Amino acid sequence: TQEAATTGTGKGSSGETVTLQTYQSNGTYYLYDTSKPMDGIIRTYTANQGSSLPGNYVTDADNNFQSSNQAAAVDAHYFAGLTYDYYYDTHGRNSYDNNGSDLISTVHYGSNFNNAFWNGSQMVYGDGDGSTFSPLSGSLDVVAHELTHAVTDTTANLVYQDQPGALNESMSDVFAVIVEAENGDFDWQLGEDIYTPGTPGDALRSLENPELYDQPSHMDDYYNTSADNGGVHTNSGIPNKAFYYIANDIGLDKSGDIYYRALTSYLTSQSDFEDARNALLQSAEDLYGANSTEYQAVSDGYAAVGIG
Ligand SMILES: Cc1cc(C(=O)NCC(F)(F)F)no1
Ligand SMILES: [Ca+2]
Ligand SMILES: [Zn+2]
After folding, report:
1. 77 an active-site residue?
2. Which listed residue (146, 169, 182, 192) is catalytic?
3. 169 catalytic, yes or no?
4. What is the ipTM of this complex?
5. I need a surface site. Which of 126, 157, 217, 231 has the fewest CB within 10 A?
6. Under a CB-based contact definition with an 8 Å cutoff, are residues 160 and 153 in contact?
7. What number does the ligand 1 atom closest to the CA of 169 have?
8. Strand locations in 93-240, DSSP E?
9. 106 alpha carbon to ligand 1 midpoint, in Å?
10. Between the CA atoms of 261, 264, 267 and 268, what dihedral angle is there, to the nearest 10 degrees?
11. In whole angstroms, how far apart are CA 116 and each of 104, 109, 136, 212?
12. How far apart are CA 162 and CA 20, in angstroms?
C-alpha cells in the first residue's frame, strides 16, 4: 500500500477554508494529523448520529474536506491542532497528558445533542438542535474548554463536584479564553460562535459578566445546589470573574503562566476556591516575586470576588 502524511484543505462551519494535516492511504485521505512534535497525533472521527465511540474516521477522496457534513469534523480537527499548539508552544506540554497521547475527537455524536464533553479518553461533540446550539466543535473556545478538562484530569485532577468542580469548569473557561485570544479572537465569552445561532451576540457564559447568564460573580451569591454536580457550571462564575480581574490587570500571557503553574504544580483533587487563591499566589510568587504587581493582581482579583 502507498501511505503518506499529506496537507489538505477543509471548510469549517464558519465557511472559511483552512489548511488541514491529513493522511493518505490507498488513495483515501483521513483526518489524521501526524505533524505534531514527538509524534503527537490528532485523529478525528464521526459517530454518524450514533453514540458508539470513536466511530468512523472522517475521510475524503480528494483531500479537500468541503462538504457540509464534514464541517464539524474540519472544525474539531483544526481547533484541536490549535489547542495542541498552544499547550506545546506556550507551556512545553506535549498533548493533554504531557506524554504525547493522541488527541481523539468525534463529531456528529447523538441526535440533536446539545453539548460537548471529554469522556476521559477523547473529545465528543454533538450537533446541537439547531436552535440552542449549532454543531459544538464550531467554536475554538469550546474545543479548548474540553481539551483543558483533559489537562486538568491528568494534573490537579479536580473532583467534578462542588467547589473543586466549579474550579475544574473555570480552568476550562480560562484556557478557552486564552487559546482563542492567542489565535486572534479575544473575547470574554464562552461558546458565542455556536450558542443560539438565531440570536447574535449571546453566549453560554461570560467571564466579564457572569450574571448575564445566571452565574454568580461573588462568594456572597454562591449557589448551593445538588444539581449539576453541585452547580459546577454556575459557581464557576466566581473564579471566572477573579480571572477576568487578574487578566485585566496583568494581561492574558502572564495570567496564563500563573494559572498553568497553579493547575499543574499546586492544585489537587479536592482544592477549593481558597486553595485556588493560595495556589495562584504561590505561582505568582514563584514566577514574579512576592512583592510583584502580578502577585498583587491575584490577591486583588480574589478579594474582589470575596475570597481571601
Ligand atoms: C449547563 C451546562 C453547561 C455545559 C457546558 O459548559 N458544556 C461544555 C460546552 F463546551 F459545551 F460549553 N454543560 O452543561
Ligand atoms: Ca469566546
Ligand atoms: Zn466543562
Report:
1. no
2. 146
3. no
4. 0.95
5. 157
6. no
7. 6
8. 103-109, 116-118, 123-126, 189-190, 205-206
9. 17
10. -170
11. 13, 9, 6, 22
12. 39
Q: Looking at residues 104-115, what average pLDDT do you find?
A: 98
Ligand 1 atom index nearest CA of 142: 10
Nearest CA to ligand 1 atom 3: 233
> What are the cell numbers at 213?
447568564
Amino acid (one-letter) located at 18 = V
Given ligand 1 and candidates 115, 160, 196, 232, which is best to mutate, with the most ligand atoms within 8 Å of its CB? 115
Pairing of strands 64-65, 42-46: unpaired
pTM of the model: 0.97
Distance from the alpha carbon of residue 209 to the mean position of ligand 2, in angstroms: 13
Q: Cβ–Cβ contacts within 10 Å for residue 291, how many?
A: 8
Distance 177 CA to ligand 2 centre (A): 6
62 Cα–ligand 2 center, Å: 33
Question: Could you read off the pLDDT of 194-244 as tens digits, one per residue?
Answer: 999 999 999 999 999 999 999 999 999 999 999 999 999 999 999 999 999
- Report phi then psi at 12, rounded to 5: -85, -175
Q: Is the pLDDT of residue 39 over 90?
A: no
What is the CB < 6 Å shell around ligand 1?
115-116, 136, 142, 145-146, 191, 204, 233
In whole angstroms, what is the distance from residue 21 CA to residue 307 CA? 45
> How many degrees, rounded to 5, is the angle at CA 182 between CA 232 and CA 288?
80
